[in-house]
Amino acid sequence: MDFITESHYYRVMPMLFEGLVWTLLITGVGLIFGFILGAIFGFARLSKNKLIYGLATVYVEVVRGTPILAQILFIYFGLSDLMGVNIDKITASIIAIAINAGAYIAEIVRGAVYSIDKGQDEAGRSIGLTRNQTMRYIIWPQAFRRMIPPLGNQFVISLKDTSLFSVIAVGELLYMGQQYYGATFAAFEALTMVCIMYLVITVPTAVYLRRVERRLDV
User: Fold this and answer.
1) Within a domain: 1
2) What CATH code is carried by the domain that includes residue 26?
3) Is the distance from CB of 118 to CB of 142 less than 8 angstroms?
4) Of the candidates 171, 199, 189, which has an alpha carbon nearest to the alpha carbon of residue 13?
5) Which InterPro entries does UniProt cross-reference here (predicted)?
6) What's the pTM?
7) E strand or H helix at 109, and its extent?
8) Percentage of the chain surpassing pLDDT 70?
9) Are 96 and 68 contacting, i.e. CB atoms less than 8 angstroms apart?
């Protein structure tokens, strides 16, 4: 019996590695698009144009004010029903991560730019740079350095958020663990390995981010 129990820790691994690949793929691609959205809406939140600022604020507040589980269900079922087409599960998951992360990244971008001393902008203007050039060459490089730690934290959050996509049968890490123990009734072993695999990614990431923060504080 002990041998059978112990073997489940090994037997589940191929399925979990397959799920891990999808977890990292969805997270990575979703965050790439999320960063693009975050940069766009982050700068929109800095705009003096009331319409642009207002639209960006609505996006940020609506997304941050609703759970990502509701968002994925809305995208996968709601939009599919509205448009009369079936949205692929992986595509829906990537869209959900991108939209959700984009709202939080927008605030990261806005906060990082605001954190740069106003004297930097004045210095750029004094040497003849336009507002856009000052942002591109002086403010943005400094702001981006300050964004690295919170962006890393967003990676960890989005990675864990993918576990919710099991509700639409996306073959991510948790879902594959559920499939295994559903067939073998080895829930303890399967879920233990699922948690360990999450920790193998999130703990080193957290340690690295703390080191980065210390270096940036120097």
Assistant:
1) no
2) 1.10.3720.10
3) no
4) 189
5) AA_ABC_transptr_permease_3TM, ArtM/GltK/GlnP/TcyL/YhdX-like, MetI-like, MetI-like_sf
6) 0.90
7) helix 89-115
8) 96
9) yes
142, HSE (Cβ side, Cα atoms, 13 Å): 15
Distance CA 177, CA 22 (A): 13
DSSP string over 19-68: HHHHHHHHHHHHHHHHHHHHHHHHHHTT-S-HHHHHHHHHHHHHHHTS-H
Domain that holds residue 40: 13-216
CA neighbor of 166 nearest in space, from 9, 55, 23: 23
7 part of a folded domain: no
* Contact criterion met (CB below 8 Å) for 68 and 158: no
For residues 12 and 6, give the distance between their C-alpha atoms in angstroms, rounded to a whole number: 11
Collapse the DSSP code of 165 into the 3-class scheme (helix H, G, I; strand E, B; otherwise coil) and give the result. helix
Residue 167 φ/ψ, nearest 5 degrees: -65, -20
Tracing tokens 């920790």 back to the chain, one arrives at 199
For residue 2, tell me if it sits in a domain: no
CA angle 55, 132, 37 (to 5 degrees): 35
Tens digit of pLDDT for each residue in 170-185?
999 999 999 999 999 9
**Residue 40 in tokens:** 């766009």
Sign of the CA dihedral 58, 84, 28, 181? Answer: positive
Report how many domains make up the chain.
Answer: 1
